[in-house]
């Protein structure tokens, strides 16, 4: 029984001859024009289009020139405000640059910059200038917290906090995020420095309040706690009040 090629109308002595005809004939070629490659079947061509890196659709971020494999990955990237705020002047930057003769280096930790500023200005601890600068310096980190970690009803804010303390995979709801970070002990100044640095390494966490308190005293990374402020910031509402309930 002869084997017939339906598209061509030609007949062949065997199935093998028919298959060879389909492979060799340009009439039956399944071509990938961008790659200049031919395939034996529509299925093989479609598999090539799905799997070949040359045909992987790129989802690009116009702001930072990065590409992602899926729309979901791009959207998750866009929801991370740290990545798109690295060149933004922050409240701490504004504070330090208000001293025109001070050589400010934004890459340094804020506590180090303040110590350098105090030495540069020659402030005495009890002077009016020193007290005014200290109060302004303490106000800046609170504004900066809101910049890097927003409101508690904002999933983006929760995800920023989860990234900072190394929670993976990212929870899908604000409630799940709150549950994940509930027992986290972390220094608030470290969280601010993480936001400023753009580091991918997680912030150091501690087993309990006592261990955190010892670290805070040793490093002098003290975040002034004023509980009279409202605003629902995710860090202030869910970490600061729990961790600094006892006096430093």
Describe this structure in words.
This protein is mainly alpha-helical and about 250 residues long. It contains eleven helices and eight strands. The strands form four sheets. Strands 1-2 form a two-stranded antiparallel sheet. A two-stranded antiparallel sheet has the order 3-4. It has a two-stranded antiparallel sheet with strand order 5-6. Helix 6 (about 130-150) crosses helix 9 and helix 7 (about 155-165) runs parallel beside helix 8 (about 175-180). It is elongated, with a radius of gyration of 30 Å.
Please supply descriptive tags for the structure shown above:
single chain, mainly alpha, two-stranded antiparallel ribbon, disordered C terminus
Question: What's the structural blueprint in terms of helices and strands?
Answer:
Blueprint lengths: L2 E3 L4 E3 L2 H10 L5 E3 L4 E3 L2 H10 L7 E3 L4 E3 L2 H9 L11 H7 L12 H12 L6 H21 L6 H11 L8 H8 L3 E2 L1 H10 L7 E2 L2 H11 L14 H10 L5
Characterize this entry briefly:
The chain is mostly helical. It contains eleven helices and eight strands. The longest helix has 21 residues.
Record the strand order, biggest sheet: 1-2
What is the overall pLDDT average? 77
Q: Helix proportion of residues, in percent? A: 40-55%
Count of strand segments: 8
Q: What's the overall geometry?
A: elongated
Beta percentage is 5-15%
| End-to-end C-alpha gap | 94 Å
| Structural class designation | mainly alpha
Tell me the major beta sheet.
Answer: 2 strands, antiparallel
The total of helices stands at 11
Radius of gyration: 30 Å
Order of H and E elements: EEHEEHEEHHHHHHEHEHH
Low-confidence stretches: 241-248
């Amino acid at each position: 029984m002869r084997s017939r090629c339906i598209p061509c109308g030609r007949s062949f002595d065997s199935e093998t001859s028919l298959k060879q005809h389909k492979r060799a004939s340009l009439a039956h070629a399944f071509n990938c024009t961008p790659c200049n490659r031919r395939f034996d079947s529509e299925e093989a061509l479609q598999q090539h289009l799905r799997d070949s890196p040359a045909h992987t659709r790129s989802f690009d971020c116009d702001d930072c020139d990065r590409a992602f494999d899926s729309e979901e990955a791009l959207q998750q990237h866009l929801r991370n405000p740290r990545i798109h705020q690295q060149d933004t002047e922050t409240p701490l930057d504004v504070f330090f640059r208000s001293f025109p003769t001070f050589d400010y280096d934004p890459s340094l930790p804020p506590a180090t910059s303040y110590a350098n500023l105090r030495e540069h200005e020659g402030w005495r601890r009890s002077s009016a200038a020193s007290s005014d600068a200290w109060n302004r310096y303490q106000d800046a980190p609170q504004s900066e917290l809101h910049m890097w970690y927003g409101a508690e009803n904002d999933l983006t804010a929760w995800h920023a906090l989860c990234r900072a303390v190394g929670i993976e995979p990212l929870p899908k709801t604000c409630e799940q995020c709150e549950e994940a970070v509930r027992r986290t002990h972390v220094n608030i100044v470290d969280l601010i420095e993480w936001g400023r640095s753009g580091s991918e390494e997680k912030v150091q966490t501690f087993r309990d309040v006592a261990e955190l308190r010892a670290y805070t005293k040793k490093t002098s990374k003290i975040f002034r706690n004023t509980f009279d402020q409202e605003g629902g910031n995710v860090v202030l509402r869910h970490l600061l009040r729990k961790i600094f309930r006892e006096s430093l």
